[in-house]
Design goal:
six-stranded parallel sheet, globular, 203 residues, 8 helices
């Protein structure tokens, strides 16, 4: 069996950030008397609810710790990652999360919160890379064989160099191509790796 270095995104892959955005954004807009419609194909909160810059900042002021601490893990993510590592694959958490919405005494603590959340849900990993703005270049520099991602622009960029499993979401429906595999669950990811990658040499 081929042993791979597998990149795993955090938001939208290890958790369902789209569902979280829709739920918390709807609550916030109702409480703030904001009613400009809803765009499920938007990726960022301000795109989904047509928020101004100040409204977006206020949303994150209220909800940033809910995302960092309370958002649940996707079903079986921890279990499947454990199986992948047991099979000999390396798991590299690769996330664009940064300190943008952490202020005052919490500034600069994004690494702490990411690792705490991963520990909370028993998500194993061999390496962790956060606050990366160019995932394609990072995939190259750290030698990934496969990436699991949800953001459309990242999927399109990374799939030019390595295979990408795109975790299904309303905002990435346009992602297609020979190097793109759409997935809907973590056990589907495991099955795809067994069937399409682990049994053959990576080219």
């Amino acid at each position: 069996m081929v042993k791979m270095r597998i990149g795993v995104d955090l938001d939208g892959v290890l958790n369902d950030v789209a569902e979280w955005h829709f739920a918390c954004g709807s609550k916030f807009c109702l409480e703030q008397n904001i009613n400009r419609g809803f765009n499920p194909k938007g990726y960022y909160m301000e795109e989904q609810f047509y928020l101004s810059s100040e409204e977006n900042k206020e949303f994150w002021r209220q909800y940033i710790f809910d995302l960092l601490i309370a958002i649940p893990v996707r079903p079986y993510a921890s279990e499947v990652i454990h199986k992948l590592r047991k099979d000999g694959h390396k798991i590299i958490i690769l996330s664009a999360r940064d300190n943008q919405y952490l202020t005052h005494q919490y500034s600069g603590m994004i690494d702490y919160y990411v690792r705490s959340w991963l520990d909370k849900y028993n998500i194993e990993y061999d390496e962790i890379v956060i606050n990366t703005s160019n995932k394609r270049e990072k995939c190259l520099s750290i030698g990934l064989d496969l990436m699991i991602e949800d953001k459309a622009s990242n999927v399109n960029d990374i799939s030019k160099i390595i295979p990408v499993m795109v975790f299904d979401a309303p905002y990435n429906q346009g992602c297609t191509g020979k190097n793109v595999i759409r997935v809907y669950s973590w056990y589907q990811i495991y099955q795809e790796i067994i069937n399409k990658f682990a049994a053959t040499e990576i080219i």
